[in-house]
Design a protein that fits this description.
Helix content is about 45%, strand content about 15%. The protein has about 290 residues and is of the alpha/beta class. It has one domain: Alpha-Beta Barrel (TIM Barrel). It is globular, with a radius of gyration of 19 Å. The model has no long low-confidence stretch (mean pLDDT about 90).
């Protein structure tokens, strides 16, 4: 029997008042979809630390949604990171997304902070000493760009799970087969936590190609062709984007996937339309005499 579909959403801390107003409009629009949780990102160099904290605790206090802050290993000592985690625990936050984090702006490679947690598995183990957090970690269906191999990438994911992670959320992708191969390989490697596909609805195609190049996600030729020539046609792009995301989720649903994590980019319209359609099931098949 197919399990009910469930969504979670990712937001990022706004940089100014106008962006903050849009964020809260987005939260209000998506809340009726009853997400299993919402996450809030964290700047690579810790620059959004307080903004992330303020948004997470406000969501928790005012909306009733389960909120999960991102925490990284970058830009802080172990003691500083665990102090942040303790503040979240004291505020009633029970979920965290634990990440290694990207190198600070201007750096070309990741270097562990002196006295800090070196990698995400170390961070997960440290968080477990603070409280019984439900911890999510990152996974890469098309291999982390810094990984030596696909096997090494899976070994790293297993270390995070063995340290206490409850689920893995994937980087976005556009080839469902890549996710399914990764899911099967993870299971074969003894990784027994849910692996949740990350879905990024396409708003501006050049932006997506830039994101994909940075994280090692592939963009199929057919997808590029669908968006060709639509740089100045936002309405058509939105329709195609919704269709692509719905088709991808429905494909994964047929293979037993029931949880999906949407990267919202703090915009509600596309995500709401996609999730609304998915909650009401696929269109019926019409039989012709």
């Amino acid at each position: 029997m197919t399990r009910p579909i469930r969504f979670s959403f990712e937001f990022f801390p706004p940089r100014d008042a106008a962006m903050e107003a849009r964020l809260w409009q987005t939260v209000a629009k998506l809340a009726p979809l009853n997400p299993s949780f919402v996450s809030v990102t964290y700047g690579a160099d810790g620059s959004t630390r307080e903004r992330t904290h303020d948004i997470v605790t406000r969501i928790h206090a005012e909306t009733g949604l389960v909120s999960a802050p991102h925490l990284t290993c970058v830009g802080a000592t172990r003691e500083e990171v665990l102090e942040i985690a303790q503040r979240y625990w004291d505020a009633g936050i029970r979920q965290i997304v634990a990440l290694r984090g990207d190198p600070p702006q201007g750096s070309t490679r990741y270097v562990p902070h002196p006295g800090g947690f070196a990698y995400a598995a170390d961070l997960v183990a440290g968080l477990r000493r603070i409280g019984d957090f439900e911890i999510s970690v990152a996974a890469y269906p098309e291999v982390h760009p810094e990984a030596a191999s696909a096997a090494a990438d899976l070994e790293n994911l297993k270390r995070k799970v063995d340290a206490g992670a409850a689920r893995a959320i994937t980087q976005f992708f556009f080839d469902p087969a890549a996710f399914l191969r990764f899911r099967d390989a993870a299971a074969a490697a003894g990784i027994d936590v849910p692996i949740v596909p990350g879905i990024l609805p396409i708003t501006r195609f050049p932006q997506i190609t830039k994101f994909a190049a940075a994280c090692g996600a592939g963009i199929p030729d057919w997808l590029s062709e669908r968006f060709a020539g639509l740089e100045d046609d936002a309405e058509t792009r939105a329709l195609i984007s919704a269709s692509v995301a719905i088709d991808m989720v429905e494909t994964l649903r047929r293979h037993g996937v029931s949880d999906f994590h949407f990267y919202t980019l703090n915009r509600a319209e596309l995500v709401y339309a996609i999730c609304h359609c998915l909650l009401h099931g696929p269109a019926p098949q019409v039989a012709y005499a």
